[in-house]
Design a protein that fits this description.
The structure is a single chain. With 125 residues, the chain is mostly beta strands. Helices cover 12% and strands 35% of the residues. Strands 3-4-5-6 form a four-stranded antiparallel β-sheet, covered by helices on one side. It has a two-stranded antiparallel ribbon with strand order 1-2. The relative contact order is 0.23. The model has no long low-confidence stretch (mean pLDDT 86). This is NIDO domain-containing protein. InterPro entries: NIDO_dom.
């Protein structure tokens, strides 16, 4: 497995260049994948890549429900990124919890986002 993960930022965004980028109104000059993008503090970010059969099957089913590729799309691996506890500066909220799953196939990649708990929404993009 060889997912190329450029910076995964605690602000809820993945960038595809080494440049730091602050949340701003879209579009922005750099290519980004923004799951839930806002200035945060206290966020912990976890990520892993897996080719576990159960995870791959769940990911394939999700793509098939949304896009109906059936057997034309084969999942090679899934990169799961979890943002936990991010909240606006000087906030006493519990913070947010959300995930981004990059479902990687031979010729296509899909992004599946799960918003589990969103307690903060200050200037999210």
């Amino acid at each position: 497995m060889a997912a190329c993960m450029e910076p995964i930022h605690s602000s809820g965004v993945i960038t595809f260049s080494p440049n730091e980028i602050a949340p701003a109104a879209l579009p922005v000059s750099e290519p980004v994948l923004a799951a839930y993008w806002m200035n945060t503090e206290g966020a912990t970010v976890y990520y892993r890549e897996t080719d576990d059969a159960n995870t791959v099957n769940l990911a394939h089913n999700e793509v098939n429900i949304q896009y109906r590729y059936g057997s034309k799309f084969r999942v090679k691996s899934v990169v799961i990124i979890t943002w936990e506890g991010g909240r606006p500066e000087n906030s006493d909220s519990d913070g947010n919890l959300f995930q981004l799953a990059l479902i990687i196939g031979d010729t296509m990649t899909f992004a599946h986002i799960v918003y589990s708990k969103l307690n903060s929404n200050d200037n999210a993009v």
